Amino acid sequence: MSDTYLVQTPAQPGIPPGGTDCATLVRLATLGAVVGGSLAAAANLQRVQSGEVTAAAAFGETGKTAVTAAVATAIGGAAASGIAEQGLLRLGVMFAAGTLALYGLQRWADARTDPDE
Fold first, then answer.
1. Of 19, 44, 42, 28, nearest in space to 95 by CA
2. Domain containing residue 91
3. What are the pLDDT digits (tens) for 19-69?
4. How many domains in the chain?
């Protein structure tokens, strides 16, 4: 029996060694959810302790913020990957696109829950 079938084939061109673009965006979204959710949880914990909101309302707000942060981070990552491979330009584009996405998503969510707008 020959061992030639054990020869590894080279990586496909265009696919980064860290995984596919989709897998990278999922990792970025997960990171965004963890960071955004952690910040929201800390802020909402203080609000619960001071009696401003109930624990259930704080939990819902934390979840909403985590999902919004995940989407904004993925959008920022997608925009940045189209601009530059690495460096400050990529970071700047990711920051700007993520900020705009987060702002837009928050405005949209607020408009849906506020009957005056």
1. 28
2. 20-111
3. 457 888 899 999 999 999 999 999 999 999 999 999 999 999 999 999 999
4. 1
